[in-house]
Design goal:
Strand order of the largest sheet of chain B: 1-4-5-6-7-10-11-12
CATH class of chain B: Alpha Beta
CATH topology of chain A: Rossmann fold
Mean pLDDT of chain B: 92
Distance between the termini of chain B: 13 Å
Oligomer: heterodimer
CATH architecture of chain B: Alpha-Beta Barrel
Radius of gyration of chain A: 16 Å
Number of domains of chain B: 1
Radius of gyration of chain B: 16 Å
CATH superfamily of chain A: Class I glutamine amidotransferase (GATase) domain
Largest sheet of chain B: 8 strands, parallel, barrel
Shape of chain B: globular
Mean pLDDT of chain A: 95
Order of helices and strands of chain A: EHEHEHHEHEEEEEEEEEEH
Strand content of chain A: 25-35%
Number of helices of chain A: 6
CATH superfamily of chain B: Aldolase class I
CATH class of chain A: Alpha Beta
Order of helices and strands of chain B: EEEHEHEHEHHEEEHEHEHEHH
Number of strands of chain B: 12
Number of domains of chain A: 1
Distance between the termini of chain A: 26 Å
Largest interface: A-B, 40 and 36 residues
Number of strands of chain A: 14
Chain lengths: 213, 253
């Protein structure tokens, strides 16, 4: 039977691209939904997110979906994308501070506005565009070359690249986490749905991931 | 190795067809936007920009439909602009599948609109498009209505103000160079790029691959945008990237 993938819809912008990219990645039925039962009965779950971390947390809580995320990761694979990754950490310094889900330790802080590149040039914020992801051993990178470029667009990041949960890093001014993982959870700061073939490949790997790290 | 400089093909779309005018006149047909964007996607474009140049009221539905079809098969970022006047327009474009929305004239008439838009949707999806013309050496001003109407606003100051209002990116077009194939206005590009903290996309005037290199090296742009050199198959995106890489610029190959 074709597996189902629930893309959690909690009012965080457009989920069309995420849904289309997952469908494109392999045989599966994608459901864009805010219904707790539908999410909990899916085979896999994607937690997207764009915009402000506070708005995303609020949207999730207003729909009672924060507890659903915890139920899901007890049993099956969940993939967080962009702010969907950020809200899996403990805290974000955006606006006046955002308490997040705490699936991963650590917090999300702003890029400094005075960062310099290798030639002394000022680095722009948001970090926008294609940057290299340095992989750490994880089954979900299968078939994707180390240092493949993915598409990022963000002004806040998970700065503690040495945490055990970090399975991919990126360098912008200093290293930061491009990917976090623990059993049943894989989360990325970049947008696989905007990262052309490499992004589709990553979603394809997620579709067959058994949840182990 | 770090963040790559981006190459962005631009589709000027009039009533559902890709066109490109020389200084906004003499419009030539360059095909179906979905087909064209599919080709650029395969060639390795880093993003695609879609400018709805008619942007009449009746035309909006066609635009949403086209954007939606593009977003269903092109898995790279898509910026849409042209006739964006209110937050409903932005919401509709984002829901159709745009990743970023570019605001041009409306920002000039109502600067607070940019603030409102960035607060509501996030700076990451708000691009402010600036059309500028040189008025004296070292000074450029904003023009609206396809370069016909002066506003008296200084381009560099305006760009800084738009960033302080929450613009996440600046799409900077030289109206003196647009369609001429003489290369970017590098003085303009550099003045704005050095003045703002957000990425600047250089636009207007690309006629060959050296111009793209100049936009980054001399103009300090984070991204370069071109239309006609790609539409009429003068160069592929791949050739453009190779030229940039040969000049020592980091690109996604």
């Amino acid at each position: 039977m074709t597996q189902t993938v629930a893309v959690i819809d909690y009012g965080s912008g457009n989920l069309h691209s995420v849904a289309k990219a997952v469908e494109h990645a392999g045989p599966c039925r994608v459901l864009v939904t805010s219904d707790a039962n539908t999410i909990e009965s899916a085979d896999r779950v994607v937690l997207p997110g764009v915009g402000a971390m506070g708005d995303c947390m609020q949207g999730l809580q207003d729909r009672g979906l924060d507890s659903v995320v915890f139920n899901v990761i007890q049993e099956k694979p969940l993939m967080g994308v962009c702010v969907g990754m950020q809200i899996l950490t403990e805290f974000g310094e955006e606006s006046s501070g955002v308490n997040a889900l705490g699936v991963f330790p650590g917090q999300i802080t702003q890029f400094s506005k005075s960062m310099k590149g290798p030639e002394g040039n000022a680095l722009k914020v948001p970090h926008m565009g294609w940057n290299e992801v340095h992989q750490r051993s994880h089954p979900i990178w299968a078939g994707i070359d180390d240092r493949t470029r993915f598409y990022f667009v963000h002004s806040y990041r998970y700065a503690d690249a040495n945490e055990d949960c970090v399975v991919g890093t990126c360098d912008y001014g200093a290293p930061f986490a491009a990917a976090l993982s623990k059993p049943n959870v894989f989360a990325v700061q970049f947008h696989p749905e905007k990262s052309h073939d490499a992004g589709i490949h990553l979603y394809r790997n997620f579709l067959t991931w058994d949840g182990t790290c | 190795m770090g963040l790559a400089k981006r190459i962005i093909p631009c589709l000027d779309v009039d009533q559902g067809r890709v066109v490109k005018g020389v200084q906004f006149e003499d419009i030539r047909d360059a095909g179906d936007p979905v087909e064209v964007s599919r080709r650029y996607n395969q060639e390795g474009a880093d993003e695609i920009t879609f400018l709805d140049i008619t942007a009449s009221h009746e035309n909006r539905a066609t635009t949403y439909e086209t954007v939606s079809r593009m977003a269903s098969e092109v898995f790279i970022p898509l910026t849409v602009g042209g006739g964006v006047r209110n937050t409903d327009n932005i919401r509709d474009l984002l829901l159709a599948g745009a990743d970023k929305v570019s605001i041009n004239t409306a920002a000039v008439f109502e600067p607070e609109f940019v603030k409102k838009a960035a607060d509501k949707f996030g700076s990451q999806c708000i691009v402010v498009a600036i059309d500028a013309k040189q008025v004296e050496p070292g000074r450029w001003e904003i023009f609206t209505h396809g370069g016909r109407k002066p506003t008296g606003l200084d381009a560099v100051e305006w760009a800084m103000r738009m960033v302080s209002y929450g613009a996440g990116e600046i799409l900077l077009t030289s109206m003196d160079r647009d369609g001429t194939r003489d290369g970017f206005d590098l003085g303009l590009t550099r003045s704005v790029a050095d003045a703002v903290t957000v990425p600047v996309i250089a636009s207007g005037g690309v006629g060959n691959l050296d111009h793209l290199v100049d936009g980054v090296v001399e103009g300090h742009a984070e991204a370069v945008l071109a239309a006609s050199i790609f539409h009429f198959a003068q160069y592929t995106i791949g050739e453009a990237k190779e030229a940039m890489a040969n000049a020592g610029i980091e690109v996604r190959l």
